[in-house]
Amino acid sequence: MMMMTSKADTPINAENGGVITKKDLVRMFWRSLPMEFSWHYERQMHMGFEFMIGPALKKIYKDDPEGLKEALHRNLEFFNCTAHVSPFIGGITLAMEEINRANDDFDASSINAVKAALMGPLSGIGDSLILGTLRVLAVGIGTSLAVKGNILGPILFFLIFNVPTFILRYVCAIKGYELGANYLEKVQASGLMEKFMLAAAILGVMVIGGMTNELVVAKTALKIGSGKSATQIQSVLDGIMPGLLPLAATGIYYKLLQKKTNVILMIVGTAIFGIICAQFGILAA
């Protein structure tokens, strides 16, 4: 008796040796829901990302225990992105892992480079549209009804926020993999992967630079001279390059992280350093 294979069990990229099916991507979609439950300061959502793509990685490297070990270790690097669009990055990652499994000359470091390049732009879009717009809209509608004692308040909040985000997660999981499978394979075959990686690296550096300027705050209150004629050192630094102190602080932390310095010690040390500098008028709020 012949066994019928459903479309959901058929590898999406079978012509190129892919093993990931729609069922695997749906499973990834469901496993993306608790992504932020293990968030922490050192690598943020990396364990949630690993949990999301873990079963698919085991399928890709089914007969390659060493390759699976390397893939699991590789995908435990720093990851932080709006959770609702993270399945898009997960899909692209799985497509690249399949390419890496099939091609011995594939540069595996490109997988994390692409992830890093996508995190910033997708977070900017996701945070603005989902957390900054959709959630506020859902809260406004739900609260306006709830304060009047209407049971539809919490129900509408739940539906307005969660229905679109669930659909978005699902679409991101499918389209992310399809994008990676359809285009990255061609990029690899055409020899353009190096240029693609250079573009991804440039984008990643631009995102990190923008985040450094916006999210890292460091100002000095020191002056040269006294009275009204005193010159603010901060204004001199801004004249040389705006955001110079935040950039320097980011560079210091980057070097410390490269040396595997304990993150908790860095946080405590930063707090103590800030208190001391504020007390002696070295740093300004």
TrEMBL record:
The chain crosses the membrane at residues 151-171, 192-212, 263-284. GO terms for biological process: phosphoenolpyruvate-dependent sugar phosphotransferase system. InterPro entries: GatZ_KbaZ_carbometab, PTS_IID_man. GO terms for cellular component: plasma membrane. Keywords: Membrane, Transmembrane, Transmembrane helix. It comes from the Bacteria. Pfam families: EIID-AGA. This is PTS mannose transporter subunit IID.
